[in-house]
């Protein structure tokens, strides 16, 4: 199938469909067309769709990530301040001015608390992403963009999203220990995992790898762009964060820098999720029949029901 789907929208099969030799019982509306809101035939189309969807959902998405940032910052900011203070107190021992290793205990304790806070914040972010995915689907399917409705649908998938996020973090950690190339590969293959877990019941890590390998050219181009956008945004905000921490200094500088990092999370949440949803749609369309019609609420004559 992969050799056919890469030929372009003009190259259709005998049934005048983009995908070759699909079962005739599938209604025509369930085949993607060049005007499909999510599935695109090429890279420029993918980017245009993502930007358009981001423009439609940015207000509720910004509110969503602001709400999610409150508990996340409440956990990570005090933990960050405590860890910074313990690291500062540890410096004399490292320089040899204080004998013994007993000073390591408070530092290790603060490190553990900080890591726990980061993990909890990442799980909150995963749930927020699931809700944000529903906002994108609402916009793509022509529904009213409602944060309340999206939250109801996203929270129902929250246990699955959290569970698979933990599995993905474990796999990523193992890949990191193995070296540079495995971490890039695993990270790329799992990038759309939150989207597919939100939209597909019973799907997980293996499905994410299957979608990624359906058409490597499509997958790599989308994933690399999402990574570049994320890295560029992180670098820009990171530079400002370091500057603020250096200028203000002390505990106040640490707090301000952490709060500014929350601003980065808001911006990234609004921009990145539409890119991921459309990337998922393109990957799935290269593997099997798929269009935005599959995501319509209570669709009529849905071949999958």
TrEMBL record:
The entry's keywords: Membrane, Transmembrane, Transmembrane helix
Keyword Transmembrane helix belongs to the record: yes
Segments crossing the lipid bilayer: 62-84, 104-137, 158-177, 220-240, 246-277
Domain of life from the UniProt record: Bacteria
Name of this protein: Integral membrane protein
């Amino acid at each position: 199938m992969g050799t056919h789907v890469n030929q372009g929208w003009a190259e259709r099969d005998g049934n005048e469909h983009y995908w070759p030799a699909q079962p005739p019982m599938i209604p025509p509306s369930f085949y993607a067309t060049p005007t499909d809101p999510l599935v695109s035939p090429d890279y420029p189309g993918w980017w245009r769709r993502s930007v358009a969807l981001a423009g439609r959902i940015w207000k509720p998405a910004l509110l969503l990530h602001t709400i999610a940032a409150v508990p996340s910052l409440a956990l990570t900011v005090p933990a960050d301040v405590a860890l910074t203070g313990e690291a500062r107190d540890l410096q004399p021992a490292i320089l040899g001015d204080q004998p013994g290793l007993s000073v390591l205990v408070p530092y290790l304790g603060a490190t553990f608390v900080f890591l726990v806070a980061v993990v909890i914040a990442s799980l909150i972010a995963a749930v927020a992403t699931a809700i944000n995915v529903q906002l994108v689907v609402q916009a793509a399917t022509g529904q009213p963009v409602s944060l309340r409705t999206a939250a109801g649908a996203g929270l129902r998938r929250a246990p699955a999203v959290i569970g698979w996020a933990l599995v993905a973090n474990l796999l990523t950690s193992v890949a990191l220990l193995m070296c540079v190339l495995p971490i890039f590969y695993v990270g790329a293959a799992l990038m759309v995992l939150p989207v597919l877990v939100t939209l597909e019941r019973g799907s997980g890590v293996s499905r994410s790898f299957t979608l990624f390998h359906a058409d490597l050219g499509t997958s790599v181009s989308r994933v690399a762009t999402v990574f570049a956008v994320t890295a560029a945004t992180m670098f820009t905000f990171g530079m400002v964060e370091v500057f603020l921490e250096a200028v203000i200094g002390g505990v106040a500088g640490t707090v301000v820098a952490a709060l500014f990092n929350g601003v980065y999370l808001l911006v990234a949440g609004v921009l990145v999720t539409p890119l991921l949803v459309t990337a998922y749609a393109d990957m799935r369309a290269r593997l099997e029949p798929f269009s935005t019609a599959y995501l319509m609420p209570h669709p009529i004559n849905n071949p999958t029901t």
